Amino acid sequence: MAKTDDMIDDLVKDLLPVRKHALHRLLILALVPGIVLSAAFILLGHGLRPDLSTAVSQAAFWAKSAYPLLLSIVGVVALVKVARPGGRPVAAAAPALIIYSLLTMLGLLQLNAATSPAEHHRLIMGISYWFCPLIILAAGAPLMAATFWFLRRAAPTRPRLAGFIAGGTAGSIGSWVYSWGCIENGLTFVALWYTLGILLCGFVGAVCGRHFLRW
Amino acid sequence: MKQLTETELKALMLLSLDGDETAYRCLLDMLRHLLVSYYARRLGGSAAAHVDDLVQDTLLALHQRRITYDRARPFTAWFFTIARHKLVDHHRRSGGRAHVGLEAIGDVADDYSEDAVAANMDVNRLLASLPAWQGEMIRQVRLEGRSVAETAAGAGRTEAMVKIGVHRGIKALAARLRGERGEDG
């Protein structure tokens, strides 16, 4: 009991005011350097796509970039939710599915418009399908460090779920960064291989969550 | 001890978040007493040393993770979710004892869930104090809502025996409860 008295004394001495929306600030503080590192990795290690100036006038480029960006927004909201004790980000599932369905629908329209079997194949497999998920994993790594740094200062009570969301969000932001370097135009390609990369990040996050998010 | 309300505790928490040391000390003192009874009930008499550890752990977690408290939401719900998290963690580390209670602890998440869980655990504890077959009859007939005939068929007894079992069991429980209350006050 005396030890508890001492501890309460220490805690009171250590008290600092907490600003409103401090949790959101902490997340931004974590994400900004994460995005900078991820962008540096893509710029220096991969480079912007060579035809960027023509790509920005194509709808497919913007659809490809919007998909991970929208997923990132859903992910960040879910991340704040799961960072609080007892937080269950169930509300994130529906928007994530809707975003994915929209992308798949656009991808199918794009496939329908394809004129040759070669183009068809290019829209699905591209020329980079085998390393696309790996690049996303690498581009997501600094962001995963950021989201875990954030969660370790918060209070997630479901370590695996929190890890999955941290990883998936990091992967989504990482693939948005990569979408500026990736040369593919196929939305089916994005729906398959970007999503695989993001899920891979989520899986790594879930495994890490079991170890790093216990408190 | 005086009954603490959500309103009072939340007011203290909001002051503490603004850096009011007096309010914070008051809050920690009140929560400490709440936690002692919360953990003592759930761990049983043999684990008094663990209770202190858990109380300290939980107060420390409140301090280190107070950034996750959302000012627009109830304070006790937030706080007891942390307390429950520490209890689950304690059970896991001490080898998964008392698993039965854990699922119930995980499921409930509203303001006054601590009491609901406690009531549930108390019922189980009381039933365990009866002869096994009487406890089982009460569980089936009164808690699970089966018919006397069904229960009798399942247990291979006559309906009259089931009725008598439930009746005697409940009388014994009532006597026990009166006894417990007598001891307390």
What key phrases describe this protein's structure?
heterodimer; A: 215 residues; B: 185 residues; mainly alpha
What do these coordinates show?
- The complex is a heterodimer of chains A (215) and B (185).
- With 215 residues, chain A is mainly α.
- Chain A has one domain (33-212).
- Chain A has helices at residues 2-13, 22-45, 52-55, 59-82, 93-113, 117-125, 132-153, 159-178, 187-212.
- Chain B has two domains: 6-112, Rna Polymerase Sigma Factor, Chain: A; 129-184, Arc Repressor Mutant, subunit A, CATH 1.10.10.10.
- In chain B, helix 2 (21-43) packs antiparallel against helix 3, helix 7 crosses helix 9 (159-184) and helix 8 (148-155) packs across helix 9.
- At the A-B interface, helix 1 and helix 2 of A face helix 2, helix 3 and helix 4 of B.
Tell me the layout of helices and strands:
The complex is a heterodimer of chains A (215) and B (185).
Chain A: H1 2-13, H2 22-45, H3 52-55, H4 59-82, H5 93-113, H6 117-125, H7 132-153, H8 159-178, H9 187-212
Helix pairs in contact in A: 2-7, 2-8, 4-5, 4-8, 5-9, 6-9, 7-8, 7-9, 8-9
Chain B: H1 6-17, H2 21-43, H3 48-64, H4 75-93, H5 99-107, H6 113-128, H7 132-143, H8 148-155, H9 159-184
Give a brief rundown of this model.
The complex is a heterodimer of chains A (215) and B (185). Chain A is an all-alpha fold.
The CATH topology of the largest domain in chain B:
Rna Polymerase Sigma Factor, Chain: A
Please write the string of helix (H) and strand (E) elements of chain A: HHHHHHHHH
The amount of beta strand of chain A, in percent, is under 5%
Mean pLDDT of chain A: 94
Strand fraction of chain B equals under 5%
Quaternary state of the chains: heterodimer
